[in-house]
Amino acid sequence: MTAANIFPKGFLWGAATAAHQVEGNNVNSDGWLLEHLPGTIFAEPSGDACDHYHRYPQDIGLLAELGFNTYRFSIEWARIEPEEGEFSRAILEHYRRVLTTCREHGLTPVVTFHHFTSPRWLIAAGGWEDEQTPGRFARYCERVTQHLGDLIGAACTLNEANLPALLATMGIGGEPAEQRGQVPMWAAAARALGIAPERVAPFQFTTSAKGFEVKLAAHRTAMAAIKAGPGNFPVGMTLANADIQAGPGGEARAAAVRREVNEVYLEAVRGDDFVGIQTYGRTRFGPDGMLQPDEGVELNMMGEEFYPEGLEATIRQAAAVAGIPVLVTENGLATSDDTRRIAYVQRALRGVTSCLRDGIDVRGYIYWTALDNFEWVFGYRPTFGLIAVDRATQERTAKPSARWLGNIARSNGASLEG
Ligand code: BGC
User: Fold this and answer.
1) In a mutational test of the pocket of ligand 1, which residue from 50, 368, 372 has the highest number of ligand atoms less than 8 Å from its CB?
2) Which of 376, 378, 386 to mutate to test the pocket of ligand 1 (most atoms within 8 A of CB)?
3) CA-CA distance, 121 to 226, in Å (whole number)?
4) CA 49 to CA 68: how far, in whole Å?
5) Closest by alpha carbon to 13, among 407, 418, 415?
6) Could you report the per-residue pLDDT of 126-146, keeping only the tens digit for each?
7) Which of 50, 132, 219, 406 could be bridged to 66 by S-S, CB 3.0 to 4.6 A?
8) Active-site amino acid positions
9) pLDDT tens-digit readout, 10-27
10) Residue nearest to atom 10 of ligand 1 (CA)
C-alpha cells in the first residue's frame, strides 16, 4: 500500500489556533490579568496578538488557498460572556461570521469551546476548583451551540485538561493550594480578584484532585449541552499527550507518570466521539525524575528534544486505552529553521501512516499552529507557525512548510513521500 491510498477519504488536514494566542486584546480574560500582574511569569503581554479578531477573513482564505480542508480555532468565553450571565449576541455573531467564512472556503471548522483562558469573573468565583464551574461552562456551551451549532464541523470541549498534570511532573506549577500565597503571581492575582490565594485556580495551573474532578465534570456537562443543541457533529476533548519514556532505571517512574498524565484521562474519555491528541515530543524519566535531553541532540526553541516519533506512540496509546477515533488536533515544532519543520512533520506523518496501516482510526492531522503567535508564558519568541506574522505590520507570509503541507493536504497524503 502506498501513502496515496492509506489516508481515508474525508481525512482532515488543517492548522490550529487558539483565541487568546491570535485574536488580540482579550481584556476580560484571566490570561490578560495574569500577564499584567506584578510578579507575572509571562515574558510579555499578548497585546494585539495577530489581530486575528479582525484579520480572520484573510487568514482563513490563506489556509484554504494553501490546500487545507480544516481550520481548528477556539471561541473565547471571556468575550462571549464577559460578565456572569451576560451573553454578547454581537460577539456570537462575530464567531458566526468566522464559521461562515470557513464554510465558504470549504474548510471544516473544528471549534474548541475553551482553550486555556477563562473569563476573569469565573476565576474570581473559584475558577477550575469550584464545583459550580461545570454548570457555568455548560450554560455557556449551550448558548454557543444554540447560536453556532448548525455551522460547526467538530467540537472540542476543553483543551488539554491534563496539561497541568504534565507540567507538574516536569516541576512546573502544581503548588498545593495552601502554598499559592507564597508565589508572587498568585498572591498578586488574589489581591486583584479580591479572593484568598488558595482559591486562585486558572485552568492551566490547577493540578489538584479537585481541579481534575471539576474539569472532567465540565467536559461531561458541556458534552451534554452541545449534543442537545442544533447540528450533528462529533464532540470530544483534547489532551496533552507527551510520549512518556523511561531512561535507565526509570521504568517504574515513567509508568507512574504515563498512568497519571495520560491513561487516567484516556480512560475518562471512553465513549466520546473522538479524542484530540496533542503531541510535541517525548519526556524521559529516570528513577528520580525527569531527564534532560541527551548532550548534543537537536532541540526546538522551547529547549525540548526534536522528536517527531512521539506522535505515533501517543496515537497508539490513545487508541488502545480510549478505544475511540483519534484526531490529531495539535502537533508541531517551534523553530526558526523552516526546513526542520518540514522534516519534523514528514516524520510525524510517517507515524500517522503507520497507525492507519494497522487499522487505527485516525481522523485527521491538524498542525500547531497556523500563525506565529503568543506562546503563553514564553511570549512571541517561539515560532511554531506555518505562516510568519510581522509583529509591527501584522503582514502574513506563508513559509515553505505551509506550501509543502498544503500540497500534501491537497493530494490527501499522496505527495507525502514525493
Ligand atoms: C497548547 C497550545 C500551545 C502549544 C505549544 C499546547 O499545549 O494547546 O496553546 O501553544 O501547546 O506549546
Assistant:
1) 368
2) 376
3) 23
4) 23
5) 407
6) 999 999 999 999 999 999 999
7) 406
8) 160
9) 999 999 999 999 999 999
10) 375
Q: pLDDT digits over 230-262, tens only?
A: 999 999 999 999 999 999 999 999 999 999 999
pTM confidence score? 0.97
Pairing of strands 154-159, 396-398: unpaired
Q: Give a three-class secondary structure readout of the chain.
A: CCHHHHCCCCCEEEEECCHHHHCCCCCCEHHHHHHCCCCCCCCCCCCCCCCHHHHHHHHHHHHHHHCCCEEEEECCHHHHCCECCECCHHHHHHHHHHHHHHHHCCCEEEEEEECCCCEHHHHHCCHHHCCCHHHHHHHHHHHHHHHHHHHCCEEEEEECCCHHHHHHHCCCCCCCHHHHHHCHHHHHHHHHHCCCHHHCCCHHHCCCHHHHHHHHHHHHHHHHHHHCCCCCCCEEEEEECCEEEECCCCHHHHHHHHHHHHHHHHHHCCCCCEEEEEECCEEEEECCEECCCCCCCCECCCCCECCCCHHHHHHHHHHHHHCCCEEEEEECCCCCCHHHHHHHHHHHHHHHHHHHHCCCCEEEEEEECCECCCCHHHCCCCCCCCEEECCCCCCEEECHHHHHHHHHHHCCCCCCCC
Average pLDDT, the chain: 96
Q: Which residues line ligand 1 (CB under 6 A)?
A: 18, 21, 159-160, 163, 240, 278, 330, 368, 375, 384
Question: Which residue shows C-alpha cell 509591527?
Answer: 392
pLDDT at 3: 46
Contact assessment for residue 16 and residue 353, using Cβ atoms and an 8 Å cutoff: no
Q: Are 312 and 328 in contact (CB under 8 A)?
A: no
pLDDT > 90 in the chain, percent: 93
Residue 165 confidence class, pLDDT cut points 50, 70, 90:
confident
Cα–Cα distances in Å, from 213 out to 92, 137, 202, 412? 29, 14, 14, 39
What pLDDT, on a 0 to 100 scale, did the predictor assign at position 2? 52
pLDDT of residue 170: 76
